[in-house]
Amino acid sequence: MTLPDYHLHTRLCRHAEGEPRDYADCAVRVGLREIGFSDHAPMPRDNYDNWRMNQNQLDEYVEWVRRAQRDYPQLTIRLGLELDYLPGLESWIAELAGRYPWDYLIGSVHYVRAGWDVDNPEKRAQWDREEPREVWAAYFERLTQAAETRMFDIIGHADLPKKFGHFLKQGDEEIYRPFLRAARRSGVAIELNTGGLRKECAEIYPGKRFLALAWSERIPITFGSDAHLPTEVGLGFSEAHRLARACGYTQFCRWAGRAALPESLSPTE
């Protein structure tokens, strides 16, 4: 499999299983040549929520990835991190970005406001008290801010609010436009995240309407499974490849040392 899987988690985030070597082992067995780890970064306050590592675990995470790099020389293994963007956290994000020689940083939005991470199964009842279009608008306003910071290399799961089946209605695609223009100006890529195929929305993040607009804005792409189990490495990549080609993409990006490495996207995967 020629596509790299750049969105892998570990048990340090408290809602995944396994260590990097477990994911590397599965990657070799399914024929991947390159993977990258991007576990959830700590927040300035530990236990901000229950799905990320604490500050004192960041060194351990990096050492785990380094060990996997040594133990699996047949694989290219990249060191990344998934950071939540919240207004006011820019200095913290900059501090984390400077701690290690990351290969890439994924910027994600989970919170549309304090206390509500819209994809959290424990809080999905909140959707019943919300107007979905307003949630989408708030989410994309924050995602646009994330792109405008130029602090990230990749934007993660860019239409996450659909996770539980709350899709943006056809005709409301203009909500995407400010983000896509900000992404184009900043040079940030978006990932085709196949984790959505395993959720209630049963669709890759982002969907075809979004991705077609991203292609029209010439936004670079990369790929990730959002694996929380070793057996999920590379899942759905054939579907992601077909989606990218159907939307017009003929290139994708690999990453090393926070530099994008464009590569041709083969006609078939």
What keywords describe this structure?
single chain, 269 residues, alpha/beta, TIM Barrel, 11 strands
How would you sum up this structure, described in words?
With 269 residues, this protein is of the alpha/beta class. It has one domain (5-264): Metal-dependent hydrolases (TIM Barrel). Helices cover 29% and strands 19% of the residues. It contains 7 helices and 11 strands. Helix 2 links the parallel strand 2 and strand 3. The protein is globular and about 50 Å long. The relative contact order is 0.15.
The domain tally reads 1
Structural class: alpha/beta
CATH class: Alpha Beta
Average pLDDT rating: 97
The amount of beta strand, in percent, is 15-25%
Under CATH, the topology is which? Answer: TIM Barrel
Q: What's the name of the CATH homologous superfamily? A: Metal-dependent hydrolases
Give the C-alpha Rg: 17 Å
Number-wise, the strands total 11
Q: Which geometry do the CA atoms define?
A: globular
